[in-house]
Amino acid sequence: MSDEESSQEDNNGEMFTTDAILSEEIGSAENDKATTSDAADLLGLLARKKAKLTSSSSKRSTKRASSSSSSRTRPVVKLMVTSVSRSYSEPWRRKPQRESSGTGFLVAWENDMQQPIRITTNAHVVRNATTVRARASFGPHVVSCHVEWLSLPLDLALLRITAGDWSDFCKGWSFDIAATVDGTAALAADNNKTIDDTSGNNNNSNNNNATKLLTLSTGLPKLDENVTCVGFPQGGTQISVTRGVVSRIDVDSQYVLRIQIDAAINPGNSGGPVFDEKGQVVGIASSHLRGAGNIGYIIPSKIVSNFLQMCQDNDEVKVEDRFSGLGALVVQEESIEESKHVPGIPNLGILGSQTLESKALRHNLGLDELDILGGVRIVGCLSNSSDSSDTSDRLEGDDVLLSINGIPIGMDATIQLSETRPDERINFRSLVTCQRVGTFYTHTSFPLRLRSLTLTSIASLFIPGSKVTLDVLRRKERKELSVSLNMSRFLVPQYDDFDAIPLYLVVGGCVFTPLSLPLVSEKKSNKSTSFSRYYRDQRLGNEQMIVLSKVLNDEVNVGYHGWKNLVLKSVNGYEPKNIQELVDVIVRKMEGEMMNFRCTVVGEQDADYVICMSEQEVIHSENRVLQRHMIASWCSMEAISKELRDEIEKNEPSETKRRNAYHTMKGMRHVLERA
To answer: Is the pTM of this model over 0.85?
Structure first.
């Protein structure tokens, strides 16, 4: 029962008590006329008593309302973040240090017996963070945090309080440390309880200032339902509360469910809870629409719960499946504790869909013959022949998708929001993006609560992964398919440190780098926006789109100054499919006196732009170009494949000389020539 409902019930009981007391006073007055001879005095006495009782009831109601408001704001924290981002336009350097702030709130965490509390916020609040400090909303209590889990596609993050500050956290937020360790199960079962109230005794006056963990709503709020947004927006230092209504339930550009509200969401609100009328969290404040009035977006609690469950199950996407599938791509310093990432947004493995509002097209596909009114046409599917272990059904191009898990799809590519809300519709892909990508576990990666189970029972729970049942019309015959959901793997990486990383290669002052959305957002030029046609394309393996990012002007590249945003097609006849292959071609396979880079402009694939430079001039100018622009190495270490590193290590046993060789193309060639 919510705090508002509880207060209402108490108020009704209070009015009953007041009326009973007044009846007793009137009866007593009628039976004792000798004590009061003036009827006016009697009425005045009764009126004063009624006013006194009403005032007392109002004060108690106000106190309960204040307590209810405090129970909502007390678990909310202000996050003070220091971050250092990587540069994609100049990938050999870092951007200046930046300070920002956001909001988070406390949630129960059953996987950690020692620290059963975490902080939930938006991923963009703590991305690339070097330090994160959480400040209480009710007092001068500040603790340090570590980013434990991230989902950049869902824009969600989970923070863990550092071990050194855990004791201070428990004291500042009025948590009992002993009960915290022993009462984890009780805490997880009832998030409305305070951690130091595991006995169930609510009459203890010491619990009035204790922090209660917030409860996530299990459903979607209704249109025009009142919501309250709590956070620390710009314009002040204290906690802020704004109210509004639910304006719309829709999907974002990735077809993930989102809720639009008209309550003010400003910079600093990100990561804060949004409450419904019952005091439950219906979502997390995420963003607002620039240039529009009172259009804010929140991440629904359904998506938040799914993210938290993936974290609880230790559902981590490994580095081999990130960064364009180049397994040994990322080299992390052992001293840095890296955040874990949950899998990205699932999809059906399709390239797109087409609505069927055309009567002629519906007749051509055979829908009229079967009297089928809905459905969408699949325009194409991804080829996944490299995964021979997956024997599940697949969609094909020209299939007509009629329903997902028994939910019919309209000809406009929408479905009913729910059975109880048939008049509200939403894009059909929201049924897929709210699911989980299947995961295969090793025993050491099992969630703690599952390690006691047998391998057979674990397999029955997890190995099949998330599957959906599809009703499909294929070549005018209906079929039922069971399709496994795959993680989206974009040809153009979209998220820094999830599927994108700033890689580069400098040859004769020409800077080549894989195309990514972070690179495009930094360049902000007219030509770079033409790459948008590739943003939705999915990669099949470890291919990348290599582009000429810029030219560092030098005598060796006269005639090409100002060239940028060109797509690399070939180098001396070789067509590298990713930057590791490009490095391999340049240091091992270059023959002849000239280096010929053939590039093209987006939309002009038949037009070649050639960069031709003398190989000897490129080698002689290498140190000059690198020193002039303060570039430590001719390519990023992650752009060197594992095979190439192993060969260099074999030919050069000295670690010092080997490190120096990596800094220049000439040095790497010299080591390889020894073989």
So the answer is: no
